[in-house]
């Protein structure tokens, strides 16, 4: 398998030709990416218009692209298609998550590590069965300078094959267990499918945890502990509700034993999205890589360790943007906002005296100082040459949770005026109370964002017990909970039966876009209700009894 995946030795002229072609393709991709970022609205390139030019409801894909670009989260890396630059606005959020998660797993006893980014064809060979399906996504380095490498190396798409040979070396005794390492890195998967900032990129940031345990039970406990941390990142930090559950056989990590997952929901298109996965690998990899310890109960007997792996990627940021953003741009939950409060000076005119201006600036500096000491990440916008209205739009575009407006009229009343980014609600707070009221308001915003997103997910997660109602439910932007036998072939069939093709349109004269079939998202740990005795699998072509309600949907 690895030989087939590794490129064969190429002649010099073939290399030249390949280089030329690659250059051409890169130029074409750069041009396409440039065009993709610059649709035209009203005769103006949307790049040249500062705000968002389409509504979230009318054109969700373009809305999303404009938000991540204009809020300065992402830049397209036009040199090579499918790659994105993550700008400071993105990295701030990622680092909040990283710090929080690092502290949590440290408390569980996980250590930090860093392994090389390259894989040899030989180590891939060891896990060839599971790599087979992923082979088309492997990126290979074939040259160093102008010389072909004797053995090409692959860029890691994930690190099992990089790490586990060393687990075999380092884990000797049951006293070495549990053995737990985590690394924060980037991985490369050369996606053939269309790429989308954060959700699907050819290189992305993630953390990957890889652990080994003595027993299935101990491994299983950790799988759930980690899953709960992932759920908390979504719910408590990003204000995004998720459903915890187990993947079906079709959707689990093929190399593992079972996969648990947190699943999100995008209201704008009704699609489900996998949020993060925590796998129990069973003894599959420990057998492949010979990771064993002596049985503590029986001298001389060796047992294969039980392994887990778990990962969460920068995809989380895309999900957050899609859920909270609105027609004015990004909406950031306060806990991940680098600037939580922006103070915009107002009411200064040409006739304001220098003295009054100076006094106003001092008052703003004082407000800022008070908020900073109360632990609120605050900044003031003293940019010259921009109107307050322009500044309001700019900070709204960038998602700052709370705007404080302060002018002579506010000063006269000893208050600040505020506007919430999420609801637009406006009000005033006495200056003497901002040190307590502003942090409270930020907490309220955080909570309200979650509550709103949760209501939307709850409303669009519907139990369907009549097959005829499945497609209408999907078309109404729902994900569905259906009685399901959990059969692998049956799941394929369900996908097939829910995919509508052109020629199946009820009126063949009306062109209809084909619609995506549904796949299983997870078997929720929390079932919507008890399955009635003898309930049949909902697939009309399936005879089996249902094992559980399973959440299906169109998905990313
Ligand atoms: C793409 C190319 C090659 C996913 C791939 O989920 C290999 C793979 O093994 C591959 N895409 N996977 C599964 C990754 C499993 C697992 N690894 C550690 C995780 C979490 C972190």
What does this 3D model show about the protein?
The protein is of the alpha+beta class and 556 residues long. The chain has three domains: 112-317, 2-Layer Sandwich (BirA Bifunctional Protein, domain 2), CATH 3.30.930; 334-457, Rossmann fold; 461-553, Translation Initiation Factor IF3 (2-Layer Sandwich). Helices cover 36% and strands 24% of the residues. The chain has 16 helices and 25 strands. The strands form six sheets. An eleven-stranded mixed β-sheet has the order 5-9-10-16-13-12-11-24-25-23-22. It has a five-stranded mixed β-sheet with strand order 18-17-19-20-21, sandwiched between helices. Helix 4 (88-108) packs antiparallel against helix 8 (216-237). Residues 1-12 have low confidence and may be disordered. Bound molecules: ligand 87F. Ligand 87F binds at residues 131, 134, 137, 157-158, 189, 208, 253, 277, 279, 309-311. Ligand 87F is lined by residues 131, 134, 137, 157-158, 189, 208, 253, 277, 279, 309-311.
Quick structural summary:
With 556 residues, this protein is an alpha+beta fold.
């Amino acid at each position: 398998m690895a030989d087939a995946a590794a490129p064969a030795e190429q002649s010099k002229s073939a290399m030249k030709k390949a280089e030329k072609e690659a250059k051409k393709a890169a130029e074409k991709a750069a041009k396409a990416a440039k065009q993709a970022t610059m649709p035209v609205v009203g005769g103006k390139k949307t790049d040249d218009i500062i705000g968002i030019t389409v509504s979230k409801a009318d054109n969700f894909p373009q809305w999303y692209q404009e938000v991540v670009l204009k809020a300065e989260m992402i830049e397209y890396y036009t040199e090579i298609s499918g790659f994105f630059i993550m700008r400071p606005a993105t990295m701030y959020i990622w680092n909040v998550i990283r710090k929080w998660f690092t502290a949590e797993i440290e408390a569980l006893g996980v250590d930090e590590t860093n392994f090389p980014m390259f894989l040899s064809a030989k180590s891939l060979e060891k896990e060839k069965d599971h790599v087979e399906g992923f082979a088309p996504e492997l990126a290979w380095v074939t040259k160093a300078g102008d010389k072909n490498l004797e053995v090409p190396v692959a860029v890691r798409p994930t690190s099992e094959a990089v790490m586990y040979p060393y687990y075999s070396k380092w884990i000797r005794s049951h006293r070495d267990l549990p053995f737990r390492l985590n690394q924060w890195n980037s991985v490369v998967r050369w996606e053939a499918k269309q790429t989308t900032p954060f959700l699907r990129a050819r290189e992305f940031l993630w953390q990957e945890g890889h652990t080994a345990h003595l027993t299935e039970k101990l491994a299983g406990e950790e799988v759930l502990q980690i899953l709960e941390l992932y759920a908390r990142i979504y719910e408590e930090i990003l204000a995004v509700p998720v459903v915890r559950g187990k993947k079906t056989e079709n959707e689990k990590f093929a190399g593992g034993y079972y996969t648990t997952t947190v699943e999100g929901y995008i209201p704008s298109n009704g699609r489900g999205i996998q949020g993060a996965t925590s796998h129990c690998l069973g003894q599959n990899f420990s057998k492949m890589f010979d990771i064993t310890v002596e049985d503590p109960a029986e001298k001389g007997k060796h047992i294969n360790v039980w392994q887990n792996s778990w990962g969460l990627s920068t995809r989380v940021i895309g999900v957050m943007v899609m859920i909270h953003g609105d027609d004015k741009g990004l909406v950031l939950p306060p806990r991940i906002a680098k600037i939580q409060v922006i103070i915009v000076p107002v009411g200064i005119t040409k006739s304001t005296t220098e003295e009054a201006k100076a006094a106003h600036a001092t008052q703003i500096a004082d407000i800022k100082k008070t908020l900073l000491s109360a632990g609120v990440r605050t900044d003031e916008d003293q940019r010259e040459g921009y109107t307050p209205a322009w500044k309001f739009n700019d900070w709204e575009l960038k998602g700052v949770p709370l705007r404080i407006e302060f002018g002579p009229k506010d000063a006269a009343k000893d208050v600040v005026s505020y506007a919430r980014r999420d609801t637009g609600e406006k009000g005033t707070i006495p200056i003497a109370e901002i040190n307590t009221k502003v942090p409270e308001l930020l907490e309220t915003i955080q909570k309200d964002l979650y509550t709103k997103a949760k209501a939307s997910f709850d409303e669009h997660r519907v139990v369907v017990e009549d097959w005829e109602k499945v497609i209408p439910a999907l078309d109404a932007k729902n994900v569905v909970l259906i009685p399901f036998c959990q059969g692998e072939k049956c799941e394929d069939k369900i996908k097939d039966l829910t995919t509508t093709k052109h020629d199946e349109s009820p009126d063949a004269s009306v062109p209809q876009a084909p619609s995506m079939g549904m796949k299983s998202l997870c078997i929720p740990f929390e079932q919507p209700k008890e399955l009635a005795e003898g309930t049949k699998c909902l697939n009309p072509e399936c005879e089996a009894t249902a094992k559980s309600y399973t959440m299906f949907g169109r998905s990313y």
